[in-house]
Design goal:
The protein is of the alpha+beta class and 212 residues long. Helices cover 21% and strands 27% of the residues. It is built from 6 helices and 14 strands.
């Protein structure tokens, strides 16, 4: 490894031997474990040590070679990448034990990196088609709309609206720093907008009249 006669490419190959080799982006599925209190309390080392040494579900323990790039996001959770589609689909809703507590793995979604909002307190008469049309009329067509919460087949009335962008669409911002927090869908009344970016949900500004 320290042989001065080795070529530059050989030295690079040797230096990178200890890290996972890059693969196709088509086989890199981002996964998420919500764990706000855990990541606010324990260090990355403590979390990784516990995750790797404690008893875990069989599907997890048998496929650690497909799990990589773990990162603790303080006061939020743990992100990682799965490099096997079948394993990825089976990890969703499994519970892993970390620092003596169980945490649920969020099911994989191809929309997980895209910006979304949750429409809460939707008027009973507002339809999903009207939700889609509102965003189209304001220049930001959604790519996917779903119930905000689905648990064992039970679906919430609230709606999660995804956009093909990692940043908030212009239709959801009053200005660069002020998010829209209410929207009138189909003239049936106002729904509350909860943004993916939690800091946008701390205050409720007045409805912008141009976006009603």
């Amino acid at each position: 490894m320290l042989d001065p006669t080795r070529s530059t490419s050989d030295k690079k190959f040797a230096a990178l031997a200890g890290v996972p080799q890059a693969g196709s982006n088509d086989l890199a599925f981002p996964m998420w474990i919500p764990a706000k209190d855990l990541t606010a309390t324990f260090s990355d080392t403590e979390i990784m040590t516990s995750l790797g040494s404690g008893p875990q579900p069989a599907i997890w323990s048998a496929n650690t070679q497909h799990l990589r790039d773990f990162k603790a996001v303080r006061s939020a959770g743990i992100s990682f990448v799965c490099t096997n589609r079948d394993v990825c689909s089976k990890l969703g809703d499994q519970h892993v034990t970390i620092c003596d507590k169980k945490y649920r793995i969020q099911p994989y979604s191809k929309y997980s990196n895209w910006y979304y909002v949750d429409l809460q307190r939707l008027p009973d008469d507002a339809t999903d088609g009207e939700i889609y049309d509102w965003f189209v009329d304001h220049g930001t067509p959604p790519v996917y709309i779903s119930p905000s919460h689905t648990v064992q087949g039970l679906r919430s009335r609230s709606r999660r609206v995804h956009f093909n962008n990692k940043n908030p669409p212009l239709s959801l911002m009053i200005d660069a720093a002020t998010p829209l927090r209410q929207v009138n869908i189909g003239g049936h009344g106002y729904a509350v907008i909860n943004h993916r970016r939690c800091e946008f949900n701390r205050e409720v500004p007045p409805l912008h009249p141009c976006l009603a």
